[in-house]
Amino acid sequence: MKSFATVGLACATALVSVLIGSYTFKTRARANDLVNVTGLAKKDFVSDLVVWKGHFVRRDPSLKAASEGLRRDLDAVKKFCAAKGVKPEEPVFAPVEIEQEFDEKTDSAGRMVRTPKGFLLTQRMEIESQDVDRIEVFSREVTSLIDAGIEFYSAPPEYYYTKLGELKLEMIAAATRDGRTRAERIVEAAGGHLGALHYSNLGVFQITQPNSSAEFSWSGAYDTRSKRKTASVTIKLQFGLR
Question: What is the pTM (predicted TM-score) of this model?
Answer without folding.
Answer: 0.78
